[in-house]
Structure prediction request, 492 residues.
Amino acid sequence: MSQQSSFFGHPIGLRTLFLTEMWERMSYYGMRGIMVLFMTAGLTGSNPGLTFSAVEANAIYGAYIGLVYFMVVPGGWLADNIFGYQKAVLLGAIIIAIGHYTLAIPFEQTFFLGLLFVILGTGLLKGNISAIVGKMYDNNDSMRDAGYTIFYMSINIGSVLGFLICGWLGENIGWHWGFGAAGIGMTFGVYQFVKYRHLLGSAGAEPNEMDPDRRKRLLSYFYVAVGIIAIAVLLALLGVFDIDPVIFASSYAYFLVIVAGLYFLYLFLLAGLDPSEKKNLLLLFFLFIGAAAFWSGFDQSGGSLTIFARDFTDLNLFGFELPISWMNLANPIFVVIFAPVFAGIWTNLAIRNLDPSLPMKFAIGLLFMCLSFILMVYAVNAAMQYGQVGIQWLLITYLLHTWGELALSPIGLSAFSRYAPKKYAGQMFGLWFTASAIGGVLAGLLGGEATGEGLESMTPIFSFMIKYYLVIGVILALLSFVIKPAEKESAN
Ligand code: GLN
Prediction:
């Protein structure tokens, strides 16, 4: 670590990663905050949208999140084998910026093309930038965990900026101004990454060593894949396939579950793991299920809960009409406030040897999620009675989401790097984000069902969410007594 310059006592390169991730998340969440509003807006009025039904818009939103997070898997492979992590992040950031500028062009085709660019770019950026953070530290685990905590702050500061700027512009000036602002934010990220990339030194600069012929061959597979995607996209944009968003999203959900299941099976049975590695893998498997379930409620923020904010919440605050998407600000603001509190609680409990185990922390996360949907059932009842409810309902819902997130998300990320089988450590970010992908698609499908018929359809779906969280949470809590990580940690 350089002695002269540091970033809150950490290697100065962390600042480069912090600012890149901050602008990337500004663009991602800023756009995400208004995409369902844009898709469901009518054609008339000063800010026309795409006139999709709530069910279709939610399905597209879910499939989008699912694709964004699953693309982390090929993105990691490309970084490992072809580009190196730094170049993958840069390329990803440029593609994301192009995506948001494409979204800013007001046609239905450019909307979908823009989403595709953001999906592919985020696949190259998100997992790889998270991996470079880890590569900045030798083997000093406590510094590394603190580094990831700082990094988690950049995510949430970025999303505050995104909801504020893109949300306000999108809702008040025009949706495409919001999308364009996301592009400008990502451009700042590209600029500063190019300017300060040298501060990263050699962390993630080179891909794995490999015979040059083999790399050339892999690169040619990559070009073939890009070609196939380009042709498929062209045909889709020309209207050759008629894609039903709900069928697409539900088939994609099955696909993700099958791929993840097969991958775990492969690791268990065919990867030649030793017994302690298998024990840790079993633990990760249950955490994976907990995480996917968690995000399937959490990610309804940009879908069903945004529709609840628009149609059934009185957003007038002291005479100022809040933009609908600003309700989403609650989560990142609460994260910045409560992240140190949660870290302090875990440390204090650990001193007394009372630190809950990983499945128990996940169960706590799911319990908060369960409580948030109990609250939403009351909110829906109140809205049925009075037509609209105050913003406190959604604010407390998002507070519970945040407490759940803090019990599960930062801890899950580090568990997946710590307990991964040694040979497969690099792929574990991909697996962790695949749980987010499954959660995202389910959030779109469940959120669509919840909003299909207005308030009437919300109660059954939200009641289902309560039972579903209760069951998975209790199972994880019980498992925490049985499934413990092997003494010997299997990765460094
Ligand atoms: N909020 C975090 C981020 O944007 C985690 C999201 C997720 O894994 N679904 O990085």
Notes: The longest strand covers residues 6-7. Residues 25, 155, 295, 409, 436 surround glutamine (CB under 6 Å). Residues 3-209+242-479 form a domain with the Growth Hormone; Chain: A; fold (CATH 1.20.1250.20). The radius of gyration is 22 Å.
